[in-house]
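Quick one:
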Amino acid sequence: MLVTQAAQRPRRRAGRARIGIAIAGGGPIGGMYELGALRALDLAIEGLDLTALDVYVGVSSGAFLAAGLVNGLGTAEMCRIFLTGDSHEARFRPESFARPALFEYLRRASYVPRLLADWFGAIVRNPFDMNMTDALLRIGSLLPTGLFDNSAVEAFLRDVLTGSGRSNDFRKLAHRFYVIAVELDTGKEVRFGAPGNDSVPISQAIVASAALPGLYPPVRIGDKFYVDGALQRTLHASVALDDGAELVIGLNPLVPFDAALAKLHGKQSPDSLVQGGLPAVLSQTFRTLLQSRMQASLSRYARHYDRADVVLFEPNPDDAELFFTNVFSYDNRQHVAELAYRSTLADLRAQRETLAPLLARHGLRLRGDVLRDGAAPGLLDSLDGRPPRPSSATARLRRALDDLGHLVADPPRSARPPRAAAGKAKAPTAQPPATGRAKRPRRPGH
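Output:
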């Protein structure tokens, strides 16, 4: 499902537009859905270099993908890492993301003797004041704050982001990158990567943003604890808009399921989600909350960022297959990514008349050869085989040449020759359209 929100006062000036991307969370399967959608955008939109945008925003599993893109890992390589397993860049092991948090279990167990002593002491002092609610609260403090250990996740990210010329340091990136988390003890949003919060390693910030309560323990950074950034807002596209993005591409993998619409379109669907038991009811409730916040955010963007265009890609609400896929499982990741890939291409094809002029304002164009029915290859077929093993030196050289190409295609204003003086102006010459994105100047002091 493609949602476009055109700027009320669209840009009319020539030159390079500031383009940003905001990728929401959604668990492992949500991340795989977003990867398939990103691959489709990569192939279908000419002029869009997903590794050289101006600003990146990632939440939870979306931060994994955004970190790869801002570090020059293209969609094809990330598909090899997460889907096919034949990448030279990293070895993805799903079991590392589901290791029991044994240390957390032991730490909570160590509280048992003291808790029992306090409990019995309270009973002796006030034998008639204790009730079942007090007992449950005391027992609840013994439960672990997360089932799975996120240290292995952080180690995987650290290895990926420190190899082949990439960086695990926000301050050394060529483009803006924000990872959104929530401070546990205040409930406030934190933008890692912003000034004052950019000394944290990227891998640690991502693990904090992905610490969904109940699944992963809160992540301690300094003297504070952080949890999943989706607890505040769904997409956080406003972070990219605040940074001056004139076009924001958003990806959100979780939408509520519409059983009536599925039946209308001839798809298999239960009569009611109640038949799916508690997991289906909780999933629908969670998705509905996320969707409600998303719609409220889009309305706010229209009021406060009237010069910016927002393009949002989401699953179709009648997709029963996606809804009933375990969002925390990696078993169906190839199938889910392929589904997202095909769905995104179909959305672009169906709305090309609306989308084409919006993209044209920002120097982008839909590729008709890709969007023709049956023209695009399958997701895995689009990867063009396995690339040769890169070295750190060749990776750095490739990135430097890419940046140089972007600068040649669209030099910054300070590098452009001054205009000729009045009366001596030269006849204007045609300039070729910019095909890349210029490297953003570093922030002062970095």
